[in-house]
Design a protein that fits this description.
Blueprint lengths: L11 H7 L9 E4 L9 H11 L9 E5 L5 E8 L2 E8 L16 E4 L1 H9 L23
Parallel strand pairs: 1-2
Antiparallel strand pairs: 1-5, 2-3, 3-4
Length: 141
């Protein structure tokens, strides 16, 4: 008996492909202390709750890096459960931005996260100004 994959209609497909998406709409928090990469969902969510004072099911993304800086985990609550992204480098390390180690975490932009994961240098970066449209005034005539 063969099982065929059901066709994806216009309602299901966007939800399916967005299921594992991280975007500029997310907020990213880099935990400021080296993390034991043996930790999984429960232990990492405990770090978020107990050490950062944040709600791990807020929909924000929490980033953890080990002491050698060759492994990274991203914990993200999406819908009805946690997603855990994990990357191990075979060579090299993740470059981290400078920050005060006494703070629990620092907020990163999506661009900074992508640069860290892709191995691009993030030191001495300056964001160039860009045009931002302002909302047009509403005529209350």
């Amino acid at each position: 008996m063969s099982r065929e994959c059901p066709s994806l209609n216009s309602e299901v497909a966007p939800k399916l492909f967005a299921m594992f998406a991280l975007t500029t709409e997310n907020t990213y928090h880099l935990y400021s202390h080296p993390t034991d990469m043996r930790m999984s969902f429960d232990a990492l969510s405990g770090l978020v709750r107990n050490n950062l004072g944040n709600n791990p099911i807020s929909g924000e993304v929490f980033i953890f890096i080990n002491k050698r800086r060759d492994k990274i985990k991203l914990l993200h609550w999406q819908g009805a459960g946690y997603l855990l992204y994990y990357k191990r480098l075979e060579k090299g390390t993740f470059e981290l931005p400078r920050y005060d180690a006494s703070v629990g975490s620092i907020t990163l932009s999506y661009s900074q996260l992508v640069m860290i994961i892709e191995g691009l240098s993030i030191k001495n970066l300056h964001k160039r100004s860009r045009y931002t449209p302002h909302a047009a005034p509403v005529n209350q005539g």
